[in-house]
């Protein structure tokens, strides 16, 4: 059925129902690439250039992984991330622009109107579907444009390669590393940020007011071999709540000091820093995926994807009035992993 027949057949019905006449399809205006073989070849080379640019971006991502290998300084990490971003942007942008340009300039742009047929699985419909696929192949020109086809296939084929490097950086299984931190008996709580711990950075219990929240790290962290790695495990959020509002587990009754409690700052979902404290509701919020923890109930999960509470750090007061850890966290900090119950099972 032609577009004119379609318009003639349905125009009256539309006028009776909606009060206006179907204007039909607009007259087709050929594009420059439709009438000029030279313009068509130029456009084809331009599209292939975008696909080649995508391949360059992918290769640059891989090169950046080795060329800008970071040390433990933040500047080197930021530089590598910037190079990663540049490579990934070129890789994805090149494919996207190339495909859009292909569709806008080389794929047939003739407007058509077709009646919708019932969806059935008979042989006739299968033949029609196959005919449509063959028509799409002919209109896109993918079969007769080997330059575009091959550069597109190459760009898409190598685009996932950076993911291999990213997965490689996940490193080995954590083993026992997540079971221990720098916290231990008598280790003082030190304000963070504060540079190298010194006397005026240690926290006295009497100075922690109700409703306050303090980011703390263990004393001596900066003297460790890998301070950033240790901070990623040992970061703690210290809060003080009216003891009457705490629903304390009898087994953990001596883990706090007059309403002062300390919990791991590392979310048990994917390890983001839990740094948002709402002192009226006593809720801790992870800004990454909105996991919410109730401090009054040992930081149990009340919303979001996290599956277990934040580990609590048992604290006490030393002879000079400073807050100190009683011992390390009783359970692994951070996201749940396959071996999280290995130590507990072996101890039993």
TrEMBL record:
<feature type="transmembrane region" description="Helical">
    <location>
        <begin position="47"/>
        <end position="69"/>
    </location>
</feature>
<comment type="function">
    <text>Iron-sulfur subunit of the cytochrome bc1 complex, an essential component of the respiratory electron transport chain required for ATP synthesis. The bc1 complex catalyzes the oxidation of menaquinol and the reduction of cytochrome c in the respiratory chain. The bc1 complex operates through a Q-cycle mechanism that couples electron transfer to generation of the proton gradient that drives ATP synthesis.</text>
</comment>
<keyword id="KW-0472">Membrane</keyword>
<dbReference type="Pfam" id="PF00355">
    <property type="entry name" value="Rieske"/>
</dbReference>
<keyword id="KW-0411">Iron-sulfur</keyword>
<keyword id="KW-0001">2Fe-2S</keyword>
<dbReference type="InterPro" id="IPR014349">
    <property type="entry name" value="Rieske_Fe-S_prot"/>
</dbReference>
<feature type="transmembrane region" description="Helical">
    <location>
        <begin position="147"/>
        <end position="167"/>
    </location>
</feature>
<feature type="transmembrane region" description="Helical">
    <location>
        <begin position="81"/>
        <end position="102"/>
    </location>
</feature>
<keyword id="KW-0479">Metal-binding</keyword>
<keyword id="KW-0812">Transmembrane</keyword>
<keyword id="KW-1003">Cell membrane</keyword>
<protein>
    <recommendedName>
        <fullName>Cytochrome bc1 complex Rieske iron-sulfur subunit</fullName>
    </recommendedName>
</protein>
<keyword id="KW-0249">Electron transport</keyword>
<dbReference type="Pfam" id="PF19297">
    <property type="entry name" value="QcrA_N"/>
</dbReference>
<keyword id="KW-1133">Transmembrane helix</keyword>
<dbReference type="InterPro" id="IPR045603">
    <property type="entry name" value="QcrA_N"/>
</dbReference>
<keyword id="KW-1015">Disulfide bond</keyword>
<keyword id="KW-0560">Oxidoreductase</keyword>
<feature type="region of interest" description="Disordered">
    <location>
        <begin position="1"/>
        <end position="38"/>
    </location>
</feature>
<keyword id="KW-0679">Respiratory chain</keyword>
<dbReference type="InterPro" id="IPR017941">
    <property type="entry name" value="Rieske_2Fe-2S"/>
</dbReference>
<keyword id="KW-0408">Iron</keyword>
<keyword id="KW-0813">Transport</keyword>
<dbReference type="InterPro" id="IPR036922">
    <property type="entry name" value="Rieske_2Fe-2S_sf"/>
</dbReference>
<comment type="similarity">
    <text>Belongs to the Rieske iron-sulfur protein family.</text>
</comment>
<feature type="domain" description="Rieske">
    <location>
        <begin position="233"/>
        <end position="324"/>
    </location>
</feature>
